[in-house]
């Protein structure tokens, strides 16, 4: 029996990267997995196949997480297909970096819509289900820049800070119904995006990290599994920074 046996997890933006790692870890602990991405392309189909190979029920859904009505319909479909939604991971996210003086309204709106409004959309749709179940774990994927800010990323930092405040507020609203809400704030994680950075930039980042390495997607997935499971049954409204000590 895994830590998440019998539970269904809905994970947004999980065809690749951190979201995929969380989906695979959850499935290895026995959870059935519904995951979304803007389109279910070869990556999405491959992720679905990897999840199914772990012996759980799994399905990928094409969805624009930033669209309220589309999200409401998607959550209904997931609930029909799986019978419950016990864990929600708001992982969908994008970056459109730039200094404030040069940032366009389009850059700002796009990041806020995908990173923050999508979490509102999914929490709004999933909490009635969790209230009826009298249990649930909501996990918002924030960032250390949502805690400390970062020059050139005001839109991204604002969206991630919003996810932290959203988790704390929702935790207060639905805690009496047996639902928990927390946030994970990753630091410098080795993904395709960070691996593409020049070596000198990567080296500068590593110098700032007491553990002297970048994090892995599995590091994030392990913390998400703790928050999704009954091991964290008395943990809500918290922000766990997974950053190797970069921001102590």
TrEMBL record:
PANTHER family in the cross-refs: 3-OXOACYL-(ACYL-CARRIER-PROTEIN) REDUCTASE (PTHR42879), 3-OXOACYL-[ACYL-CARRIER-PROTEIN] REDUCTASE FABG (PTHR42879:SF2)
Complexes and interactors = Homotetramer.
Locate the active site.
156 (proton acceptor)
Source organism per UniProt: Leyella lascolaii
Pfam families the UniProt entry points to: adh_short_C2 (PF13561)
Top-level EC class: oxidoreductase
Taxonomic placement: Bacteria, Pseudomonadati, Bacteroidota, Bacteroidia, Bacteroidales
Enzyme Commission no: 1.1.1.100
Q: What does this protein do?
A: Catalyzes the NADPH-dependent reduction of beta-ketoacyl-ACP substrates to beta-hydroxyacyl-ACP products, the first reductive step in the elongation cycle of fatty acid biosynthesis.
Catalysed reaction(s)? a (3R)-hydroxyacyl-[ACP] + NADP(+) = a 3-oxoacyl-[ACP] + NADPH + H(+)
**Sample GO molecular function, one term:** 3-oxoacyl-[acyl-carrier-protein] reductase (NADPH) activity
State the protein's name.
Answer: 3-oxoacyl-[acyl-carrier-protein] reductase
Q: Which family does it belong to?
A: Belongs to the short-chain dehydrogenases/reductases (SDR) family.
Q: Which PROSITE patterns match?
A: ADH_SHORT
């Amino acid at each position: 029996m895994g830590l998440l046996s019998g539970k269904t997890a809905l994970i947004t933006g999980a065809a690749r990267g951190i979201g995929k790692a969380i989906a695979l870890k959850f499935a290895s602990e026995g959870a059935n997995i519904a995951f979304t991405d803007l389109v279910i392309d070869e990556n999405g189909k491959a992720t679905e196949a990897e999840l199914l190979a772990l012996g759980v029920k799994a399905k990928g859904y094409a969805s624009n997480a930033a669209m309220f009505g589309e999200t409401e319909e998607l959550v209904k479909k997931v609930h029909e297909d799986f019978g419950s939604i016990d864990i929600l991971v708001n992982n969908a996210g994008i970056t459109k970096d730039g200094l404030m003086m040069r940032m366009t309204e389009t850059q700002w709106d796009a990041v806020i819509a995908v990173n923050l409004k999508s979490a509102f959309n999914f929490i709004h749709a999933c909490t009635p289900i969790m209230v009826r179940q009298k249990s649930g774990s909501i996990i918002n994927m924030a960032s250390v820049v949502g805690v400390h800010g970062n020059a050139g990323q005001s839109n991204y930092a604002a969206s991630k800070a919003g996810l932290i405040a959203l988790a704390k507020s929702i935790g207060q609203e639905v805690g009496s119904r047996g639902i928990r809400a927390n946030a994970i704030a990753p630091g410098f994680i080795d993904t395709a995006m960070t691996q593409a950075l020049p070596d000198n930039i990567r080296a500068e980042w590593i110098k700032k990290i007491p553990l002297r390495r970048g994090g892995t997607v599995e590091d994030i997935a392990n913390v998400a599994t703790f928050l999704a499971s009954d091991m964290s049954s008395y943990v809500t409204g918290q922000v766990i920074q997974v950053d190797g000590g970069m921001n102590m």
